[in-house]
């Protein structure tokens, strides 16, 4: 969008934060608040393409946080402790339902409920 009212496309791909109508336009286009737009412009530059790529990267990173990466040993350790299971059980659950931490947690909780509890031997049976 041009920040000056003259004809020409020299700066249509640039975001001018000094113009309120441009801030409103680009905020609406990227579906973000003006504050988030300003932060993105400060990190990615004034180019609309760079800002759009920045927002896509941020969405990707946010989605990635809920995924369990078996290739990273520290993640396997973290999620094993979090779900209170062995790494082998964690890997089996991931194989069954995918890498989503929510799906793995639900699968492990469901498996925990279904698992029969070991019967305790009573003192009478031990004595006999």
Estimate the strand proportion.
under 5%
Shape: elongated
| Number of β-strand runs | 0
Extract low-pLDDT stretches.
Answer: none
C-alpha Rg (nearest Å): 26 Å
Largest sheet: none
Q: Considering DSSP H and I runs of 4 or more, what fraction of the residues is helical? A: 55-70%
Overall pLDDT level: 83
What is the CA-CA span between the terminal residues? 89 Å
Describe this structure in words.
This protein is mainly α and 128 residues long. Among the domains are: 20-64; 73-114. It has helices at residues 20-30, 34-44, 48-64, 73-83, 87-97, 101-114, 123-127. Helix 4 packs across helix 5 (87-97) and helix 5 packs across helix 6.
Features:
DUF3606, mainly alpha, DUF3606 domain-containing protein, elongated, 128 residues
